[in-house]
Amino acid sequence: MSRIGLNQAAVWLLPLLFVSLFLAAQTSSFADGITPLAEKVGHRLSYMKDVAGYKAQNHLPIEDLAQEAKVLASAKSDAEKLGLDPATVEPFIIAQINAAKAVEYRYLADWLAQPETGWQPRPLDKVRQDIAQLSKEILQQVAQDLKSGRFTSDERSSFFKAVHEPNLRESDKQQLFIALLAIRLVK
């Protein structure tokens, strides 16, 4: 190919290259939209092994209604400060609490058949502090994402892939995702 032919090809290929790069960047940002939030939700659920272990060692029940009420009240207060409608955040918080309890119960069931050896749960008060901090970060991410116009049912598979906890079922993820889609900003 002559030098002129190469220059003409470059004139046509350069704009195509820029368009391709732009579309790739856009597709990547849309595809990753819910992933940081989902990873935080998954990280929060990863603490449930410590919670279940501590409760099992100390003969405490999985369900702690007083703690659940504190978590819910704190989350609704944080949501309001972030510009989220607390009434629409409540089902999401309840879904997180229910998923957490389900994971804890599944750990207990597994340990009945085969006790965990060589592992000790972290102290419950320390774990709860970490969970509380992560819960605030989750709500901050929700507010940030909603202000950017995110969350569609098309993001379900990305959410499901990013929320991976061994004792979490697809039905638990579905409840979390449905509740997440219902969260709204304060009008």
UniProtKB/TrEMBL annotation:
Which Enzyme Commission numbers does its entry carry?
5.4.99.5
- State the SUPFAM superfamilies in the record: Chorismate mutase II
The catalysed reaction is: chorismate = prephenate
Offer an example of a GO molecular function term for this protein: chorismate mutase activity
| Signal peptide residue numbers | 1-31
Q: Spell out the Pfam families in the cross-references.
A: CM_2 (PF01817)
Q: What class of enzyme is it?
A: isomerase
Matching entries from Gene3D superfamilies are given as: Chorismate mutase (1.20.59.10)
PROSITE patterns found in the cross-reference section:
CHORISMATE_MUT_2
Q: Which UniProt keywords apply?
A: Isomerase, Signal
Q: Which InterPro entries match?
A: Chorismate_II_sf, Chorismate_mutase-related, Chorismate_mutase_periplasmic, CM_dom_sf, CM_II_prokaryot
- Role of this protein: Catalyzes the Claisen rearrangement of chorismate to prephenate.
Question: What protein name is recorded for this chain?
Answer: Chorismate mutase
The species this protein belongs to is Labrys neptuniae
